[in-house]
Amino acid sequence: MADPQVSRAAYAAAALAVALGLGGCVAQPKLLYGWGSYEDIVYAGTVKPGEVAPDVQIQQMEKDRERVRAANQKLPPGWHAHLAFLYTQVGQGGLAHDELVAEREAFPESAVLCNTLLANLGAKVEKPAEKAP
Amino acid sequence: MITCRRCAKWAMLVLVAAGLTGCVSAPPPYDYSDFRQSPPRSILVLPPLDETTSVIGPYSYLSTVSFPIAERGYYVFPVAVVDQLLKENGMPTPGEMHQVALDKLRESTGADAVLYPVLHQYGTKYVVLSSTTTVDVSVRLVDTRSGKLLWEGRGAVAQGSGDGGQGLLGALVNALVSQMLTSKSDLGHGVSRMANVQVFYTKGRELPLGPYHPDFGKTTP
User: Are residues A80 and A121 in the same domain?
Assistant: First the structure.
């Protein structure tokens, strides 16, 4: 199977090239983000819920994170918040918290949503720090 | 002689072309004045309203729309997270989500603008040995402060089974399909991406570049 990271980027670049009317004549435009399989993960979670275990989706996203970092690219908007959403599903409140903070730091536009989600997370999951006597 | 014949042919072509353009009026240039007045930084995409009979269409399309908007330079809110948040707040369907007041959406997410997609067609029709996959989608981008329409676009693509493996785009879309995460039988998923190229990149009426794009502010629109 083709490397999803590479094929996604190639497809995206080709789509952009076609859209810009460049065809094959000009170098492929550079993408702003390393997408990995983010949109396919979203597909799995919303179009066929229950078919792909959240653990499997998380593993894929963590693999993508390493690849995108290694390629010196940025993760796209929403990526960290989506991973937080998956970590919440498997009861990993601490990791979910970290990803929401990462989303807010990478994209300040997400602050209101991330604060809402962090507050919800606080209500759903006991944070270890708050367990102190 | 040959040259003259060619001249005549060219002249005829020019006349035909001129005649055609005379008959078909060119679309008026897109009016970006409302967009220019309050250009958004962040865009919240809602799941599409569904005018189709496809069960998977709306969410399959939703999973393709973050890419073009983010690559145009905007912050795109995580589509599945937003969907879940709205569901938890008593809005189980896209129809109900599209009815939520703009100030409520702004208050809970901080979004500058909301993208409302409508899926007009989605799916594959099989005729004997061939098939055609069609995706037709329109989107409206609305300012969460003023309620004004900032921009709208539409894309309709019909992809025949014969074209599938031939074009560069078709080949790449086919190569892309990861069977574990998506469904190989859902041809509309790949065609949605092509429709999005029309929606967001059609020259003269494209979504203007946003602040995260390196060419933001350098080009018009």
Answer: yes
